[in-house]
Amino acid sequence: MNTKKLLKDYTTEQLCELERTVQKRYDEFVAAGISLNMARGKPASDQLDLSDDMFSLSLKEEGFLSSDNNDCRNYGLLYGIPECRKLFGEILGVDAENVMACGSSSLNLMFDFIAQCCYSGIAGCKPWMFNKNRKFIAVVPGYDRHFAIAQYFGLEMINVPMTSKGPDMDMIEDIIKDPDVKGMFCVPKYSNPDGITYSDETVKRLAAMKPAAKDFRVIWDNAYAVHDFYDEGDKLLNIFDEAEKYGNQDNFVAFTSTSKITYAGAGVSAIGTSKNNFDEISKRLTLQIISYDKINQLRHCRVYKSMDDIKAQMKKHAAILRPKFSTVLEILDRELSGLGIALWNEPKGGYFISLDVVTGSAKYVGELCKNAGLTLTGVGATYPYGKDPEDKNIRLAPSCPSVEELKVASEIICLSVILAACKELKGE
Ligand SMILES: Cc1ncc(COP(=O)(O)O)c(C=O)c1O
To answer: Which among 91, 192, 198, 260 is the best mutation to test ligand 1's pocket, defined by most ligand atoms within 8 Å of the CB?
Structure first.
C-alpha cells in the first residue's frame, strides 16, 4: 500500500486488488471489537491533572482577597478580579480595563453577545432580529458550535473557504458590501478544525474591513491563543492594534477561556474588546448577573500568576499532545501520502487535524470508521447546517485517546479512506 502511484491512475483490476487487501486489514479491526472515540477536542485526564495544584492550594489559609482587597466570596467586581483581567488582557492583547473575566465558558459569552445584537441591537442600530435577511459569514470548515449558534438565531450562513493563510479575504471583502451581513466567527490561531493561524496579511485585511453594516461584528474566538506544541509557536498579529489604525476596533470582540489551560468547562472565560463594545456589553451584563465566580478566578490567579506561568503550563500540555498528534500524522503520511486521495494539515498547536478525503466519500468514511468501532466527529459537522457540500471534510480530535489507541484509530481511518476512495473511483 506504500506505493506512490496516484489511485486515479490505477486500472480497475488494480483498484479491486488494492480493495481486497485493504478490506482484509479493515475486517480484522472490525473483528477485534474495538471501541474508540475521536469525536471531540477534549483534554485527556493527564492534562487535567496538570492543574490540580489549584486544589492543594488553600484559599482559606491564603485569604480570599483579590489584589484590590475585595472579598472574592462576595458579590461585586462584575468584570472580574483585577489580576484575572490583567492575565486575560495579556492572552488576548487587550488592556486589562477592556477585559471582562467571566464564568466558565467562552461559548456562553459568544452566545450572549449574539443574543444581545439580535434582541437589542448594537452600535445604535436596529436589532438583528428585525432584519429578516440577517446573514453571517461562516468560515469553512469551522467549529460546529459556532454554526449552531448562528443557526439558532436565524442568521443565514454564507460559506467562505479557509485557505492556508486564513479565510478567503477576496470573498469576504465582497460579501461585506451587503448590509444584511452582520458578522462572522473567526478562530484566528490554530483554527478549529484546520489548525491554521491567520497570516499577517489576513489579519491586516480583516482589520481594514469597512462592512456596509455599521453593526457588523467579528467574533474573534481566540480559544487556542496559547496552545502551541513547540517553543516557537505560530504568531498572530494583534487584531486590535491593527484595527485601531483604521478606526475599526469596534468591529472586533475577542473571546477566550482557560478550558484547555486548566479545566474544560470549569475554568474562567473572558471577553476583550473596544471601549464602545465593552460599554454596550456592560449594560446587558449588569442586568444578567451580579457577579461571576470570583473564587474560581482567584484560585486560577494564585496558581497562574503571570504569562510565564501560563506558558509553563502550556508546555506541559504540549508534551502530552505532541506525541498524539505525531502518531496520527505519521500514520496518515505512511498510509495515504502519494495516493492523491487525502489532504491534511500538520498543525503546530490547537486541538484538531482536518482531513479532506475524495469528494463525495467523507460520510462513507465516517460510516466505515463507525462500523469498525471508531467514533469521529459527525461528518458534515464542520459546515453550517451539518452539510459539507463536497462531502469531503473530516475533523480528527487526537487529544483524548492514548497513543496506543490513536495508532489503531489512525489505521482504521486510513483503511476507511482508501476503501471509500476505491468505491468512488470505481463509480460504485
Ligand atoms: C474554537 C472554540 N471555541 C470555543 C470552544 C469552547 O470554549 P469554552 O469551553 O470556553 O466554552 C471550543 C471548544 O472546543 C473551541 O474549539
So the answer is: 192
The closest of 252, 244, 197 to 225, measured between CA atoms, is 197
| pLDDT tens-digit map of 360-378 | 999 999 999 999 999 999 9
How far is residue 129 CA from its own chain's centroid?
Answer: 26
114: left (phi > 0), else alpha (psi -120 to 50), else beta? alpha
pLDDT digits (tens, 9 = 90+) for 169-183: 999 999 999 999 999
Residue 49 has phi, psi (to 5 degrees) of: -60, -25
Angstrom distance (rounded) from CA 44 to CA 28: 28
Which pLDDT score is estimated for 217?
A: 98
Ordered by where they begin, the domains of the chain are 7-47+316-425 (3.90.1150.10), 64-305 (3.40.640.10)
What's residue 426's pLDDT?
A: 87
Residue type, 380: G
411/402 Cα distance (integer angstroms): 14
Residue nearest to ligand 1 atom 14, measured at CA: 41
* Distance of CA 188 from the midpoint of ligand 1 (Å): 13
What is the spatial distance between Cα 297 and Cα 99, in angstroms, rounded to a whole number?
14
Mean pLDDT of 293-319: 98
Q: Please list every protein residue whose CB sits less than 6 Å from any atom of ligand 1.
A: 41, 105-107, 143, 187, 192, 221, 223, 257, 259, 264-265, 269
Share of the chain above pLDDT 70, in %: 99
Q: What is the pLDDT of residues 20-36, one digit of tens each?
A: 999 999 999 999 999 99
Per-residue model confidence (pLDDT) at position 427: 85
If you search the block for the grid coordinates 477566550, which residue do you land on?
Answer: 256
Q: Quick count: other Cβ atoms within 10 Å of Cβ 235?
A: 10
Indicate the helix (H) or strand (E) that contains 275: helix 275-288
pLDDT of residue 1: 46
CA distance 360 to 240: 40
Q: Relative to the CA of 265, which ligand 1 atom is closest?
A: 9
Average pLDDT over residues 106-123: 98
Residue 184 in this model has a pLDDT that exceeds 90: yes
Helix (H, G, I), strand (E, B) or coil at 225: coil
